[in-house]
Amino acid sequence: MSTRRMSGEERRSQLLKVAREVFARRGYRATTADVAREAGVSEALVVKHFRSKEELFRAAVLEPLAWLVEWALRQELEVAQAADPRHPLEYLERQVTFGTTVGRLVREHGPILLTALREAPSFPEDSARLQARLRALIDEFVEMVGHFSGQEPFRRFPARASMYWAIGGLALAALMGEDPEESARGYFEMALFGLLTDEARRSAGR
């Protein structure tokens, strides 16, 4: 019984999948020979599809990671912008949804995220583009959250510092194996009532 040969596109996709797994485990010290061995092909075939390890790393790790982060956070941003928060609980749900997405990204793609962070100095232009897009997306959340600062029932608070602190805490919790939604809800419930005015906190029974 004959086995159908992979098309060039199928082979490229297979190599990218294997390379992503290899780089996630071994970092950039992994070689094209390592990828070829795990894919069950010759190193020459890997080099035929990707001219160098640098090109393979960029195609397997950096480019899909940038797309994934952009897509996931953009989706959440659009949902949040469509909401009409008239009550602190609406504010809370916005933050929980965003924080859960951040946590899930880190938990599901932690090894490849850490690999990309470790190798950032070797890919300064790619890293700078990813950081710029991340910063732009997060700043849109910061602007949205900042509308609440100083407006009833909220105290005045530093929206940028609060958001970046939250992302760091939620990412760490995800890396430690915590449930992303539980972590996000616990963090933002605590933060929410700390940001309410005294009168609003009394009304909430806290």
N-to-C order of helices and strands: HHHHHHHHH
Oligomer category: single chain
CATH topology value of the largest domain: Tetracycline Repressor, domain 2
Beta-strand residue fraction: under 5%
Helix content, binned percent:
over 70%
Largest sheet: none
Q: Please report the distance between the alpha carbons of the first and last residues.
A: 71 Å
- Please mark out the parts with pLDDT under 50 across 5 or more consecutive residues, or reply none: none
Question: Could you name the CATH class of the largest domain?
Answer: Mainly Alpha
Extended strand count: 0
Number of domains: 2
Count of individual helical segments: 9
The rough form would be described as elongated
Please identify, by name, the CATH architecture of the largest domain: Orthogonal Bundle
Given helix and strand content, the structural type is mainly alpha
Kindly provide the radius of gyration, computed on alpha-carbon positions and rounded to a whole number of angstroms. Answer: 22 Å
Question: What is the average per-residue confidence, as pLDDT, rounded to a whole number?
Answer: 87
Keywords:
206 residues; mainly alpha; Arc Repressor Mutant, subunit A; Tetracycline Repressor, domain 2; 2 domains; 9 helices
Structure summarized in a few sentences:
With 206 residues, the protein is mostly helical. The chain folds into 2 domains: 1-51, Arc Repressor Mutant, subunit A (Orthogonal Bundle); 58-203, Tetracycline Repressor, domain 2 (Orthogonal Bundle).
Tell me the layout of helices and strands.
Elements: H1 8-26, H2 32-39, H3 43-49, H4 53-82, H5 88-118, H6 124-146, H7 159-175, H8 180-195, H9 198-203
Helix pairs in contact: 1-2, 1-4, 1-5, 2-3, 4-5, 4-6, 5-7, 5-8, 6-7, 7-8
